[in-house]
Amino acid sequence: MHCCTNVICQHCQDISKINELWLKYSNGRFGFSIQSQIWLKLDCDWIKLSDRIGWRLNNYCKEYSELTI
């Protein structure tokens, strides 16, 4: 296996583990897989996604300091 392929596979494993832990400790509310499901349900529309997950309010993108859990 080529070294770059090994690195990519390791990153996939790492991301999968982060997703698993995020799901576990958020009681299934958060994770890359959850965000992906929302993204697909909203027809891959960035504006709709950011509205749905609370990154925007009244056509305004929130600052990082304004984001809450």
Description:
- This protein is mostly helical.
- The protein is 58% helix and 6% strand.
- It contains 3 helices and 2 strands, in the order αααββ.
- Strands 1-2 form a two-stranded antiparallel ribbon.
- Strand 1 and strand 2 (60-61) form a beta hairpin.
- 0% of the residues are buried.
Write the layout of secondary structure elements.
Layout: H1 3-25, H2 32-41, H3 46-52, E1 56-57, E2 60-61
Antiparallel strand pairs: 1-2
Describe the biggest sheet? 2 strands, antiparallel
Q: What is the number of beta strands?
A: 2
Structural class: mainly alpha
Regions with little confidence, pLDDT below 50 for 5+ residues:
none
Strand order of the largest sheet: 1-2
Compute the average pLDDT: 85
Report the radius of gyration as a whole number of Å. Answer: 15 Å
User: SSE order, as H and E?
Assistant: HHHEE
Give the CA-based shape.
Answer: globular
Count of DSSP H/I helices: 3
Beta-strand proportion: 5-15%
Residues in helix, %:
55-70%
